[in-house]
Amino acid sequence: LPEEKVELAFKCGRDSIVFTSMRVLKIDVQGMTGKKIEYLTILWPSIRGFSIETAGNILDRDSELTLYFNLPAKECYAEGFPRNERTRMKIDFRDGQADIFAVQKFISDKLLGPDTMASSAHGGAMAGYQDTGSGSILAWLGDDNRMVDPREAEAQFKFILQSCEAVELAFKGRRDMILFTTKRVIFVDKQGLFGIGKKVEFISVPWRTITTFSVRSAGSFIDKDSEMCLWLDFDDVFYPRRNNEDDPPPPPIPRRSCLEIDFQKDKVDIFVVHRYLSERVMRANGHQMKPYTSPVSSELLIPSSPDAGTNLLDWIGDNASAIDPNACDVKFHEAGLLQHDEHVAYAFKAGRDSIYLTNKRLFVLDVQGFTGKKKEYMSVPLDSIRVWSVESAGQLDRDMELRVWFKGYWDNKVKQDLRKGKADIFAIQSFIAHFVIGNADGNSALKNAQAFEPSKTGAMTKILGFLSDAHMKDPVELTSQLRSSPALLQEDESVEAAFKAGRDSFIITTKRIIVIDKKGMTGKSVDYRSFPLMYNTAFKIETEGHLLSGPEVKVYTADEDIKQELAKGQKDNIWLVHEILSNKMLNNPKKDFSEEEVHVGIGAQSSYTPTPAQPYSPVVTAQPYVQPTTFQVQVPAGIVAGQQIQVQHPHTNQMLVITVPNGVPPGGVFNVSA
Questions:
Q1: How many CA atoms lie within 13 A of 286 on its CB side?
Q2: How far is 236 from 213, CA to CA, in rounded Å?
Q3: In this structure, are strands 495-501 and 504-509 parallel, antiparallel, or unpaired?
Q4: Which of 238-247, 308-317, 520-529, 602-611 has the lowest mean pLDDT?
Q5: Is the pLDDT of residue 114 over 90?
Q6: DSSP β-bridge partners for residue 305
Q7: By C-alpha distance, which of 528, 448, 522 is closest to 481?
Q8: Is 388 in contact with 403 (CB distance < 8 Å)?
Q9: 522: buried, middle or exposed (CB in 10 Å: 19+, 13-18, 0-12)?
């Protein structure tokens, strides 16, 4: 593009990798003659993380850069292959031909925001923490991590950090280290025999890439370590090969889709880790994360009482099926498990496990093992929820059910049974909908909506339609019904199109797709599943064919694909569906928070020396204009009309997401009132 600038470029044989101000461009020359060339573009906001690997000894003299992202590809289940072949890009650098740490600085500026070049004034709440060593041969053999002084770790790894970046927590295993900084998590993997080789891998995971987290306490007997799990926003699942042909296929492994880290139980306070992750991962104020300029309060990192988790479980008890949320809120705050402005709205218990809905997260307490000593505290931020469903009780199955799918690619479903009569599943559904789609556009996508007319079909088509294909229902009548019986819709939400096939229904509202599935012989158990329109990725429609082949709509969602066949003779209705989905998904797209530039400096340049880099979606300094609430914003280089940038309000210091108006070129100025 005219406003696009090449900032780094590398060549390997016939192929090239080009880093521009707007994207990563891979040029792949194919075939014997090289006449066929593939140009693969990956936008900077699509990259979820990266790693660099230094050169090794003797035979392994190349350094490496790996980028992690999500590109659409056909899923593969073959042994020895990843599930999605387009989630990693590996680039080898010849020894002495590229400065791998300069490349790391460049990528950091793009993904984490430009380096302000000002030394961090954050002293570190855990500075001065005394490292007493592993103290256990079992912990050393198990590579369990212990907490160490973050200031010492920051000094040791200053060459990998931005100048404005500070280490807040640090952990050390047998030879590797983990750094929690104000901008990311860094995993330091020393390779070679006993970690004494030259080859070291530095894996950087920006905080925006972590969608869900959990901590687990130590168990009994041989399970004496505690753990932390991080769910990441890219598909890195791999299907390993079987060792012998006669062996059954081995199960898939998550690789870096889900990271599990072991801690020494007496060297790491998992509740400190839990509180820290809550501050860095949980979003507030319109999907905004805690800025890197705001350190995690030292009060949150004070070691917990040894009986904090035990006292909470003793209070919950073993026999309750429903828990008072107000009393639970008090107990959770006493245990230090919730943030100061976080409150419990719903609390339920089933067996030894319990589940809680707060105004910020879905909190799951899972008691594990025979003795129940091992407990997992899992936090699913409400911003990470992509699909949810509630299921009413059936004739034989007397329990209701809540299911939630969160943003992730490994074991990303939470399921909880609820005892009949002890929970209002539609109140729970409405609560989740409020936080997930509450701010979505509730206006109709239809410009010239026509009065509903029942489709005219023959007797045979009616019979077949009852069995499989769907007929359109009156959206106005259904809107009225779903506001009370059951209460599914929000106040500003209405049904745009609805189709009924047998006992089941496929409904498109102004905010989501609702699939109603009646189960069992009696149909008394009903599953209501919601798919927010703003998180759907693609859709397609097929017109009707010959004989009894009717039209079809397919929507690709964040979790599973929805396919609905319509009864023959509904030519107009399938184009009605196309108009609704086009307007909602194309004209009013909602940018996923994981693609937003949230960690950025103000008026900063890249710290990469050879070619100063501009961030893809930078924060620009807002200058006061005539009125206190009106100021001018200058469009940064590389940004075109229609793209979003972040600005800081000159008076309130609030971060605002602004769309560049049409007609304003790079370098141009426009007014913002806020």
A1: 12
A2: 17
A3: antiparallel
A4: 602-611
A5: no
A6: none
A7: 528
A8: yes
A9: exposed
Total residues belonging to the chain: 674
pLDDT at 183 exceeding the cut of 90: yes
DSSP string covering 593-607: GGGS--S--BS---S
**Beta strands 525-532 and 238-239, pairing class:** unpaired
Q: Which of 362, 366, 413, 368 is nearest to 387 (CA)?
A: 413
H or E element, residue 428: helix 425-437
Q: Is the pLDDT of residue 142 over 80?
A: no
What percentage of the chain carries pLDDT values higher than 90? 43
**Side-by-side strand order, sheet with 630-634:** 623-624, 630-634, 669-673
Helix and strand numbers, DSSP H then E, in the chain: 10, 38
Q: Identify the pLDDT of residue 95.
A: 76
| Per-residue burial over 344-357, b = 16 or more CB atoms within 10 Å of its CB, e = otherwise | bbbbbbeeebbbbb
Which stretches does DSSP call E strand in 522-583? 525-532, 538-542, 552-556, 561-565
Tokens of 563: 């396919």
Distance CA 359, CA 432 (A): 9
Query: What's the CA gap between 344 and 285, in Å, rounded?
Result: 19
In degrees and rounded to multiples of 5, residue 208 shows phi and psi of -65, -20
Region of 515 please: left (phi>0), alpha (psi -120 to 50) or beta: beta
Strands 552-556 and 15-20: unpaired
Tokens 């007319």 -> residue: 453
Q: Residue 293: exposed, middle, or buried by beta-carbon count in 10 A (0-12, 13-18, 19+)?
A: middle
Distance CA 560, CA 539 (A): 12
Please state the rounded mean pLDDT for residues 164-178: 92
pLDDT grade, residue 136 (50/70/90)? low
Token look-up 């090289």 returns: 34
Partners of 520 in the beta sheet?
A: none
Contact indicator for 79, 563 with CB cutoff of 8 Å: no
Write the burial class of residue 547 (CB in 10 Å: 0-12 exposed, 13-18 middle, 19+ buried). Answer: exposed
Count CA atoms within 13 Å of residue 502 on its CB side: 13
Q: Phi and psi for 152 in degrees, rounded to 5?
A: -65, -40
Run of H or E including 170? strand 167-172
Residue 72: CB partners within 8 Å, gap ≥ 6?
86, 537
Tokens matching residue 462: 């009616």
H or E, element range at 580: helix 571-582
Structure tokens of 26?
Answer: 């891979």
The C-alpha angle 133, 136, 142, rounded to 5 degrees, equals 100
Token pair 């005394």 in the structure block, residue: 130
SS3 321: coil
Tokens at 288, concatenated: 């905004």
Q: How confident is the model at residue 174 (pLDDT cuts 50, 70, 90)?
A: confident
- Mean pLDDT computed over 557-583: 86
- Give the C-alpha separation, 438 to 592, whole Å: 15
Query: Rounded to two decimals, what is the model's pTM?
Result: 0.81
Tokens of 435: 């936080």
Q: Taking 50 as the threshold, does the pLDDT of residue 606 lie above it? A: no
